[in-house]
Amino acid sequence: MIMIRENFVQENMEKFSSQSKNCSSFFQLISNKGIRQGQFNIRGKVAKTPLFMPVATRGTVRGVSPSQLKEIGFEMILANTYHLHERPGEEVISKLGGLHRFMNWDGLILTDSGGYQVFSLSNYRKVTDEGVVFRSVLDGKEIFLTPEKVLEIQKKLNSDIAIFLDECPEYPCSAKREEESLIRTLKFAQSSIKVEKNPGQLFFGVVQGGMNFKLRQECVHALLSLGVDGLAIGGLSVGEEPSLTKEVLLATLEVIPPDKPRYLMGVGSDILEYIKMGVDMFDSVFPTRIARHGSAILYNKGRINISNKRFKEDESPLDEDCDCYTCRNFSRAYLRHLFVCGELLGKTLLSIHNLTVLYKTVRALNS
Amino acid sequence: MIMIRENFVQENMEKFSSQSKNCSSFFQLISNKGIRQGQFNIRGKVAKTPLFMPVATRGTVRGVSPSQLKEIGFEMILANTYHLHERPGEEVISKLGGLHRFMNWDGLILTDSGGYQVFSLSNYRKVTDEGVVFRSVLDGKEIFLTPEKVLEIQKKLNSDIAIFLDECPEYPCSAKREEESLIRTLKFAQSSIKVEKNPGQLFFGVVQGGMNFKLRQECVHALLSLGVDGLAIGGLSVGEEPSLTKEVLLATLEVIPPDKPRYLMGVGSDILEYIKMGVDMFDSVFPTRIARHGSAILYNKGRINISNKRFKEDESPLDEDCDCYTCRNFSRAYLRHLFVCGELLGKTLLSIHNLTVLYKTVRALNS
């Protein structure tokens, strides 16, 4: 089996190499000692790394306005290609001047490929080397996504960083399945790299290979030889033990050259540890999702659920160590009241706080 | 029947007169020609009239932050005594420094008496001259509200303007019922006026009397002789023809001295007409409630429902004549998208717009 893999990568390495490009001007590594610190400069916009991206699933970070995101300090957010393709459709967004203008966000935007939604949301799907057929979660309509198509969508959205289509294997799965999905991911990448980028846009390839270190490393090499601008690490935190996540991640990062940005997809916990290991970028719906259920993240003090009765007369701010809009202006007692009454403002205020904690915690490492 | 009424008012007039006070320093009538223009100055805070108050039912204008209300320009808001009594309770709010501090609103606050909620929300109720017994809409628990009790609650909330308990008759109802509820409202007012105000707080009496002009006018006289600081006009827009509303309102306003502020309770439509008739203050959940359902009020152009398909690619702002945060920053297409996807931000953005239209429309008359 290893033979087959090695042959595959060997055969393809040459093709890949011929397409290799130098794309490092958009990312500057500032320090590689201790915590990796870097800086994106894309289309004249700057974003320091390490960075955390709030998730604007449908072109909005749920319950938080773009001005509020800006006030927190975010420089880059993530939006979901699949959801925006379904509604309102990339054609509409393109006609309206692209996603930045559509949602009134003048910072940077990374869009995912939609691949994760295909594998996580749809019961019916068929994957071939050409692409993925699956049913819309909205209306059951059949959708055919190819590597080229997902990039065309992201070009119409005109995001700053676009991600290749990949195949994420289930966890746990067989060694054969890990390899198959890697091969498919690389075939998708080969088709993807041929798509012409929008001016200034970056293309990130996705590292798959299950929990197999060797496959992961081969995937990195193959993607690099294709000339991707950065590496999105997928297929982790999918149910495996955290210790295994770390081992696989370490093995993957080991073979990525220092000047390449590394984005760990969809992982919202243990971020500090992953940053120390050398990850530059994160996204997660976690801080906003738990906020909408009343759960607040405190600086270095774990979490509290603000609906708890013990906060009924608590006049202290949500987090004494925080200076976000919510903590500057409201008491725990008021926030609890909003949640007990199901008031919308509660969701917004806790989302602002949780995002601020994520932002500041990560930002403290790059300033 | 008229005899009985006249006797009642006659008898009581003397009692009322002895309690009369001069309370006009807090309200200055600036112009009485054409549109009435005035200015509140309560506890060092100013609010120009005519004014529209957004409704912060449970200590929050649904989906809108206090900073957003401030940015629109509001100087006074309304909060519901009954709802705040239920949750979190006036004791909690009092411990936390009063309603202003609790909800972080540094403008003026008017609280209603809770009387309207008693009559509109509760199926079971028993009204006597002492007060009202009814079942909590939250847990069915029996609640006994007296004229003194509703003022004690409002004193604990420490609102700037507190309203007396009243009895609002059903519509339509018999002449006898109109008179009975008027008599009870005045008895409540007699008990209410004896309650000592918080420093700087104002007490408004409620004008009832059904659709009977004479009863309405007698009610005004009686309340004035009690020495109320202003008049809240209740029991209108309860199902009667708009032409009747106007006739009753005119008859009521006719007998109110020019220096007394007049607040038309819970009426959110035809505001401009009522202002021209001499009303100073309004409140209504209407603009925020319809906003949460996607309905936007346009300046002088009626309403649109933003979820409508025709806005799918409409890149113009919600209202070209508006400069609110929403209209400055987002297209109709984006707002439609937010509503189609059920995104919270849509509710907030439309609420901001609708409140701005109400604010500016009324404000245009007093600047």
UniProtKB/TrEMBL annotation, chains A, B:
User: Which key words are in the record?
Assistant: Glycosyltransferase, Metal-binding, Queuosine biosynthesis, Transferase, tRNA processing, Zinc
From what organism does this protein derive?
Answer: Thermodesulfobium narugense DSM 14796
Please give the NCBIfam families that the UniProt record associates with this protein: Q_tRNA_tgt (TIGR00430), tgt_general (TIGR00449)
Q: Which cofactor does it need?
A: Zn(2+)
Kindly list the GO molecular function terms attached to this UniProt entry. metal ion binding; tRNA-guanosine(34) queuine transglycosylase activity
Read off the HAMAP family from this record.
Q_tRNA_Tgt (MF_00168)
One cellular-component annotation, GO: cytosol
Protein family according to the UniProt entry = Belongs to the queuine tRNA-ribosyltransferase family.
Q: Which GO BP terms, alphabetically?
A: tRNA queuosine(34) biosynthetic process
* Database matches in InterPro entries: ArchSynthase1/Queuine_TRR, TGT, TGT-like_sf, tRNA_ribo_trans-like
Task: State the free-text cofactor note.
Answer: Binds 1 zinc ion per subunit.
Q: Where is this region: RNA binding?
A: 288-292
What parts of the sequence cross the membrane? Answer: none
Q: Function of this protein?
A: Catalyzes the base-exchange of a guanine (G) residue with the queuine precursor 7-aminomethyl-7-deazaguanine (PreQ1) at position 34 (anticodon wobble position) in tRNAs with GU(N) anticodons (tRNA-Asp, -Asn, -His and -Tyr). Catalysis occurs through a double-displacement mechanism. The nucleophile active site attacks the C1' of nucleotide 34 to detach the guanine base from the RNA, forming a covalent enzyme-RNA intermediate. The proton acceptor active site deprotonates the incoming PreQ1, allowing a nucleophilic attack on the C1' of the ribose to form the product.
Cite the record's note on assembly.
Homodimer. Within each dimer, one monomer is responsible for RNA recognition and catalysis, while the other monomer binds to the replacement base PreQ1.
Q: In what residue span(s) does the tRNA-guanine(15) transglycosylase-like domain sit?
A: 35-364
Question: Known EC number(s)?
Answer: 2.4.2.29
Designated name of the protein:
Queuine tRNA-ribosyltransferase
Q: Where does substrate bind?
A: 112-116, 166, 208, 235
Q: Which domain of life is it from?
A: Bacteria
Q: Name one Pfam family in it.
A: TGT
What residues form the catalytic site here? 112, 283
Q: Which reaction does it catalyse?
A: 7-aminomethyl-7-carbaguanine + guanosine(34) in tRNA = 7-aminomethyl-7-carbaguanosine(34) in tRNA + guanine
